[in-house]
Design goal:
single chain; alpha+beta; five-stranded antiparallel sheet
Length: 443
């Protein structure tokens, strides 16, 4: 390997070899940049594994000209060789991150367009079902005047009353059956798309969190190649244990701040400094300031999206429920007459609902009536629809209240933890901000 030549140069006093060493290291230094280890890395010296780097470490490295599958790594101020497969350059990582974030943004926007289309189609179908049920009980009353001559020779008026359907009931049933089948498919697709967009937002936020964490670590590395992994951490549990030499060195109260870093050899553990002593601690009992800030942003982003989606759902259900109730009231017969005058039509001719089927204009000289016999049957279907809509509406409002409260509680806990990082040493921990009780959202 190239490293063999380097070590030969290092341990040689020949001027020509030393000059070669200088040129080699100078060329490598010019091309060197920070690299991040993505898995455990073996460091070679004289073809032998002499050390290891844990995942998540940053080192200076440069490709070896003779073999780009290998890097010349500077670690502990010494040169080593390592396979390039488990290290990624800072410049490449930044490019990959930009590409990844742009792709996630594109996916989220595409999901949003798909969701908007599904929401529009769902509303169109739901309103059409309600409007078709209403129209199927409406009839047009036509009165024509005829005359006849009675036995005494006098001319007598003879009105003729006929009724015609606004929408044929059999046709309405077929359309409603087909729409219900389509609506079930649209609802399934909508749930999948909403869940997919939420996952995309989480992925996008987590990718940005990882990028920010990497950039912060890189900034610290450029200031100090040895202490860059250390950052402020805070205890999130009472009695968090620090161990040294497999003995309990301290039990810390909650909201204690101390410098720590991920343990290079034991995942799920930290290496912390406490009163000048290097200790180990379980990572689950601590949080770094950067992690808290990023987790807070993630929670706020995801919860805000969920609340927005719920708000859209609640307004849709409320409007559909209101129109269904109005349609029921408009057709409910208040007498035993076979035909009665309807109430106010809850579906505008060009509004939501009637765009999916043809509705003729009210013929001149005719008036609308409710076929009370049909209305009684249709009202039963509308009662079932109302019950289902009310249940969905109540469930959406309860989820909205739960998420609003959870959002406030999470923000209050995070605020308390972040405030502790700025508290003077020895000061009592800051009190948690009272979580406001979320008011009932308006219907």
């Amino acid at each position: 390997m190239v490293y063999s030549m380097i070590t030969d140069l290092l341990f040689s006093r020949h001027p020509a070899l030393l000059a070669g060493l200088t040129l080699l290291l100078t060329a490598a230094a010019i091309r060197a940049e920070p690299y991040l280890t993505t898995a455990e890395v073996e460091l070679f010296r004289k073809h032998v594994v002499a050390a290891h780097l844990a995942p998540g470490q940053i080192v200076e490295a440069a490709p070896i000209e003779a073999d780009h599958a290998w890097l010349l790594v500077t670690w502990n101020q010494q040169p080593w060789e390592a396979e390039a497969k488990s290290l990624v350059a800072a410049s490449a990582l930044e490019r990959n991150t930009r590409t990844r974030l742009a792709e996630l943004d594109r996916q989220v926007q595409e999901s949003g367009r798909d969701i908007d289309g599904l929401l529009a189609r769902r509303a169109e179908i739901a309103y059409a079902i309600a409007a078709a049920r209403y129209d199927s009980v409406i009839v047009y009353r036509n009165v024509q005047q005829y005359t006849y001559q009675n036995g005494g020779g006098a001319i007598q008026p003879s009105p003729s009353v006929t009724f015609s359907d606004k929408l044929d009931p059999s046709m309405a049933k077929r359309m409603i059956r087909d729409w219900n089948e389509e609506r079930a498919k649209v609802e399934t697709a909508l749930r999948e798309k909403l869940a997919g967009r939420l996952r995309g937002l989480e992925d996008r936020q987590r990718s940005e969190i990882r990028a920010n964490a990497w950039q912060q670590a890189l900034d610290r590395f450029r200031q100090s190649a040895t202490g860059y992994r250390q950052a402020p951490y805070i205890t999130v549990r009472e009695g968090a244990e620090l161990t040294a030499d497999k003995q309990v060195a301290a039990r810390l109260p909650r909201l204690t701040v101390l410098p720590a870093e991920p343990h290079p050899n034991h995942p799920g553990w930290l290496r912390a400094t406490w009163k000048g002593q290097i200790c180990e601690a379980r990572a689950e009992e601590f949080r770094s300031r950067a992690a808290l800030e990023e987790e807070s942003r993630l929670n706020q982003t995801v919860t805000a999206r969920q609340l927005t989606d719920l708000d859209v759902e609640i307004h849709f259900l409320a409007d559909l429920l209101s129109r269904t109730q109005a349609a029921e009231l408009a057709m409910r017969a208040e007498s035993n007459l076979p035909y009665t005058a309807p109430g106010r039509d809850p579906f505008n001719r060009d509004g939501p609902g009637r765009a999916l089927y043809p509705v003729s204009n009210l013929p001149a000289g005719m008036s609308e009536y409710v076929n009370t016999s049909r209305a009684r049957r249709v009202i039963k279907d509308m009662e079932a629809d109302k019950t289902a809509l009310a249940a969905r509406f109540d469930a959406a409002r309860r989820e909205q209240i739960r998420l609003t409260r959870l959002q406030a509680e999470t923000a209050a806990r995070t605020e308390q933890l972040l405030a502790a990082f700025s508290a003077p040493s020895g000061a009592p921990p800051p009190a948690a901000t009272p979580t406001p009780t979320a008011p009932l959202p308006p219907p």
